[in-house]
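Need C-alpha cells for this chain, all 269 residues.
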Amino acid sequence: MSTGVGMSSCCLSGKVHEGNPTGKVETIDNLQTYVAAPKDGSKAKSIVFLTDIFGWEFKNVRLLADNYAKEGFYCYIPDFFQGDALPIDFLQSVEPPLKDRENLTLTDKAKSTANVGTTLPPWLLRHREAVVKPLISSFISTLRNDSSTGKIGAIGFCWGGRYAIVLSHGEVDAAVACHPSLVAIPGDFEGITKPLSLAVGTEDSMLDQKSVGSIQDIFGKLSVDHELRIYEDQVHGFALRSDWSSEKDKKAMDESEKQGQDWFNKYLA
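Here are the C-alpha cells for all 269 residues:
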C-alpha cells in the first residue's frame, strides 16, 4: 500500500533572498511563464521548474532559474497555479527556521497549526492532481513540439518535487526533486524510467528518515540511474528558501543547486 507523506507549516517557512531576477515573462501554452535563457539562447537543455506553493512569482525560484540559465540551461517557470499561489507573507508568519523552533510557546505552535489547517486544505483541493497534472503534461508537450527544443528536464521543490518524480515515469528526459512533499511511497516511485535525483534534509518533517529509508530501498531495485543525497540539519524547503545568514544553510542550498546542474548536464547532454 502506498503511504502519502503530507504537508505542514514547514512548507510555509523560510527566507526571501536578495537580488533581482533578469528573465522575461511569456505566455506559453496559455500559461504565464517566467523564462530564463542562456547567453546563446540554446534550448538544447531545457528545464521546467515545478514550484512550491508560493508559485512562479516567488523571487527565490526566479533567481535560481537565472543561475541555471547562466550554466547553459533554458529555463521555464510556468504558473501552474493560474494566479492562485499562496502569499509570500506566510513565509515569516507561519513557522520560523529550525534554529528558532525550540523557543516557540505552546500558544505560538497552536496558532501556526490553526493557520495551516485553514489555509492549506482548500488550496490543495483546488490544485489537486486531476487539475494540475494535465496542465503540466500539456506544457511539456508544447515544448516537445518546438523543433528547437532538445532534451527536457524537470526540477521540483516541495509541492513541485512530487511532480518531478511523477514526470520521471517517462514524460521528461531527467528529473530532480528537492524535498518533495505529498509523495506516495512506494506508489510515486513505481514506474520510474528516467534518471532521477533527490535532495532531502535530515530535519525534513515532510519526509522523515523512515520514509527516506523506504525510498532508498526502492532505489536499490531501480534499473535506471538515480541518486539520493541527504543534507545534514536541513529542513523542508532548504534548496529554495534557506537562510543565507547561516553559512551552513547557504552551503547546503548551493550544493543542492550544483547537484541539480550536474545531474542535468549529465542526462540532458
